[in-house]
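Severity: low
Component: inverse-folding endpoint
Summary: output formatting inconsistent between runs
Steps to reproduce: submit the following structure tokens with default settings.
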């Protein structure tokens, strides 16, 4: 009898450690998704539980995002979409911004490193001709197939400012107790190109590169305005 109980316990432990503690909400969300998308949904929604199989770690999620960025040549995608050769847009070095995008249509989570991550990522390239700025932006979801590509172009004479801002955004975070998403406030960094009556925003990570790039863009814009 004792042997039988031990076998049952062992089988239970084996089953549990090879399965995820998916809530009904998660089970519904992962229907029809790819393996990677399912892993992403579990990363944002599943909490490590006793003997349950653990979702991916923060580092593994970062590695997944990095693999996508390395697989796709977004600089060349941008040039192809804009329809220009790089020799036509070499007033200054092209600039790129990238980072997680937080909105009401993406999962969000604060990692063990206290860094907020989202299931949506955005990368933007800016190219500079003698008279215009050309922008390409690609925003893609990691938990589903959705993506958005767009291009814009602005004459220097119409641009009033290049700036950065830290904005508080409402974004869904999965609440394990309520088994549903709730809205939380996340502070996020953005770059903005301002023209009269409008702003073009780009998600960005604030670092030495972006600081130097923005200062260079501002210096160029001043030269264009004064010439």
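Observed output (run 2 of 3):
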């Amino acid at each position: 009898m004792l042997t039988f109980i031990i076998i049952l316990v062992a089988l239970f432990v084996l089953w549990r450690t090879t399965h995820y503690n998916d809530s009904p909400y998660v089970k519904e969300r992962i229907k029809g998704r790819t393996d990677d998308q399912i892993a992403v949904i579990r990363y944002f929604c599943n909490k490590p539980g006793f003997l349950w199989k653990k979702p991916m770690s923060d580092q593994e999620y970062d590695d997944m995002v990095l693999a996508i960025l390395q697989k796709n040549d977004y600089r060349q995608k941008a040039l192809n979409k804009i329809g220009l050769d790089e020799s036509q847009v070499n007033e200054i070095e092209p600039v790129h911004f990238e980072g997680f995008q937080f909105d009401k249509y993406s999962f969000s989570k604060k990692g063990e490193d206290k860094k907020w991550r989202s299931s949506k990522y955005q990368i933007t390239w800016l190219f500079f001709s003698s008279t215009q700025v050309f922008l390409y932006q690609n925003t893609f979801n990691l938990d589903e197939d959705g993506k958005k590509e767009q291009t814009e172009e602005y004459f220097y004479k119409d641009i009033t400012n290049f700036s950065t801002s830290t904005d508080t955004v409402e974004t869904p975070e999965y609440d394990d107790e309520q088994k549903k998403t709730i809205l939380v406030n996340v502070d996020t960094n953005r770059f903005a190109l301002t023209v009269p009556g409008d702003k073009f925003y780009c998600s960005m990570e604030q670092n030495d590169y972006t600081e130097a790039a923005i200062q260079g863009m501002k210096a160029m814009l001043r030269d264009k305005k004064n010439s």
